[in-house]
């Protein structure tokens, strides 16, 4: 059940009118539903039943500290890829012992900070990174728990830019060479290999690639056991897709159920790192139509949100549904290209959308809770949007709109 429904002709987030939010806070505006975030995280958590598990929300998806705090209160773990994300988790009240640290190039200072606060595990992505973690841990006289992120070379059948488990991706290490690297890790004085990690891509809409990847991971676990290396957890990454338009991703319970069937080991702890499947459909981006510009060849609706606010359509040609907040029948009915004010031809949020519009109308770009605000930029010196969390009838401003001082204040003139 989506938290975004029409009530008396106007789109609401839970019990709050999006038209009212636009009036109070301006546009562009990100709006998230607390109940949707909670329900989706809980669906992952509950699908595991009695299997030992940890659902580590991927912070990069939507890293507002209020979002992290809502999930931390449920007992969430977190998948991070930088010290910045770690600091967010800590400020949000997240438990460092439930944090896994992914990413291809963790800096020494980041590793130090993660060891200092006692994170759960580092997901190592290369031989060089193993050396670096061993060195930092030794300097601190600590032992770092690690997994090695392996590349099971399965086709995730998703957009090439967001597929990560193939041989020619920069992520992880070839699963065939992993036993050697595990042996080196086991021989390190300040590193303890405790898990196996893999993440094959994002926006997957089929179960098979996940199960194929797990099969290869299980074979590796057995090989390691023969080498005398005991594995205590399997981290199977994130990647479960959502419905943007007509995709039919598996239900969370079916996805987890298929993994547990294949695993067939009630004692093995399973970590997962879902992002999009928790936050994606918990958010919309509200925007206002500035001008209508119908031409002989194309009809443009120029809106106040742009590629700097939501880059997915420009970057991946991805489709996100765009609906009128208060649908009308007395405007101009046409196929519209919804374009922003940024000076780039690629600045669009939707193309050929059938809508009945007038200047001043409010639109909601759906499925914007994941990889929306976190990928926003200040291109064209545009302040980033404000963010709102709705909770029943309540509205919380969880990030104020940026000011021009926020944007320019870090810069200084050269002295002549
Ligand atoms: C290592 C890692 N874990 C988890 C995720 C979250 O992925 P998703 O949002 O597709 O669940 C990502 C992003 O793809 C990732 O790179
Ligand atoms: N940012 C991408 C997904 C990449 C996930 C990061 N590993 C998207 O919007 O679909």
From TrEMBL:
Residues 35-279 form the Orn/DAP/Arg decarboxylase 2 N-terminal domain. It is an enzyme of class 4 (lyase). Keywords: Amino-acid biosynthesis, Decarboxylase, Lyase, Lysine biosynthesis, Pyridoxal phosphate. The active site is at 343 (proton donor). Its cofactor is pyridoxal 5'-phosphate. GO terms for biological process: lysine biosynthetic process via diaminopimelate. The modification N6-(pyridoxal phosphate)lysine is found at residue 60. Belongs to the Orn/Lys/Arg decarboxylase class-II family. LysA subfamily. This is Diaminopimelate decarboxylase. The gene is lysA.
């Amino acid at each position: 059940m989506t938290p975004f429904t029409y009530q008396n002709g106007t789109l609401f987030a839970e019990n709050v009118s999006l038209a009212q939010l636009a009036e109070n806070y301006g546009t562009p505006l990100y709006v998230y539903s607390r109940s949707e975030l909670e329900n989706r995280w809980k669906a992952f958590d509950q699908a595991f039943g009695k299997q030992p598990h940890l659902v580590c929300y991927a912070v990069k998806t939507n890293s507002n500290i209020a979002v992290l705090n809502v999930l931390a209160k449920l007992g969430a773990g977190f998948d991070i890829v930088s010290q910045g994300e770690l600091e967010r988790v800590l400020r949000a009240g997240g438990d460092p012992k439930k944090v896994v640290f992914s990413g291809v190039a963790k800096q020494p200072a980041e590793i130090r900070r993660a060891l200092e606060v006692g994170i759960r595990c580092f997901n190592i992505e290369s031989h060089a990174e193993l050396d670096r973690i061993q060195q930092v841990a030794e300097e601190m006289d600590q032992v770092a728990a690690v997994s090695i992120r392996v590349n099971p070379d399965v086709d995730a059948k998703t957009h090439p830019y967001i597929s990560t488990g193939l041989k020619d991706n920069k992520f992880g290490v070839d699963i065939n060479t992993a036993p050697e690297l595990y042996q080196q890790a086991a021989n390190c004085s300040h590193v303890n290999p405790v898990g196996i990690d893999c993440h094959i891509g994002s926006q997957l809409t089929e179960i098979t690639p996940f199960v194929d990847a797990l099969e290869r991971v299980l074979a590796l676990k057995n090989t390691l056991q023969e080498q005398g290396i005991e594995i205590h957890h399997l981290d199977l990454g994130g990647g479960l897709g959502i419905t943007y338009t007509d995709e039919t991703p598996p239900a969370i319970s079916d996805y987890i159920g298929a993994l547990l069937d294949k695993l067939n080991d009630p004692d093995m702890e399973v970590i997962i790192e879902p992002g999009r499947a928790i936050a994606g459909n918990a958010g919309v981006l509200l925007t206002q139509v500035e001008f209508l510009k119908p031409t002989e060849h194309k009809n443009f609706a120029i809106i106040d949100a742009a590629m700097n606010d939501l880059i997915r359509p420009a970057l991946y040609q991805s489709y996100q549904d765009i609906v009128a907040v208060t649908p009308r029948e007395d405007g101009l009915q046409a196929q519209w290209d919804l374009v922003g004010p940024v000076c780039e031809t690629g600045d669009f949020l939707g193309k050929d959308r059938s809508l009945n519009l007038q200047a001043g109308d409010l639109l909601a770009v759906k499925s914007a809770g994941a990889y929306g605000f976190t990928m926003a930029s200040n291109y064209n010196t545009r302040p980033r949007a404000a963010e709102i969390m709705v909770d029943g009838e309540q509205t919380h401003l969880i990030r104020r709109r940026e000011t021009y001082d926020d944007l320019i204040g870090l810069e200084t003139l050269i002295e002549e």
